[in-house]
Amino acid sequence: MKNNNIENKAGDDKLSHTAIKIDGLNKWFDEFHVLKDISLSVSEKEIIVVCGPSGSGKSTLIRCVNHLETYQEGSISIFGEKLGKGKKSADTIRDNIGMLFQNFNLFPHLTILENCTLGPIQLRKIPETRANEQATALLERVGIADLAAKYPGQISGGQKQRVAIARTLAMEPRVMLLDEPTSALDPEMIKEVLDVMIDLATQGMTMICVTHEMQFAYQVADRVIFMAEGEIVEEGPPGQVIQHPKWDRTAQFFQHVLSHKS
Known about the structure:
By secondary structure, the chain is of the alpha/beta class. It contains nine helices and ten strands. It has a six-stranded mixed beta sheet, sandwiched between helices. Strand 1 and strand 2 form a beta hairpin. Helix 5 packs parallel to helix 6. The protein starts with 17 loop residues before the first strand and ends with a helix.
């Protein structure tokens, strides 16, 4: 786990191959230009935190990476493979990318264990016995193995998000995209989810996380990216961007976020 006083890991030998490369990405919703010429390279095992005001394009950006949103211009490559619209690209995304949403997206009619085994059994064709063993181990890893037989409606929001993390990990992704994973949680439940996210980061998972949780950014992020009006306005080590931003718009945003959290 990183010391909060360490501002960057430039030269850290954990950063090696390029996991995701975004080049000249532009997206419109009708007349609204939501992403404006976004270019970004994410190294394998790098932790990126994306911040910015509502409507800045943060969630749209990571949804484009996962092809949950289409884009009109630019390109995205995952581990060197440029994504298109065919089955090969869909397989590349499924095999490499895991997505964690704000609102859990668990199947209410399935038990916690079944939620975690459905993908591996149906999509990866893993035998049920092996999928059950793997899911049980992952639920133990996120601290909720005792809930395996319960249903989503019987557990708390923080527990649901930990189930969602275990379910994502069950697909063995190389990269995790997290879209404000704590925003739907009560304050007392946020820490239990952040602890799991921090553990994943320190174990070497490549992550792009849209969040305003500065604790997570300080502890594990390699870079913080600040977006506004569809553009990357500023990026750099957490200590630089959060504490010593170059632009007034960035400073105003973090002043508001940090005062709200205190």
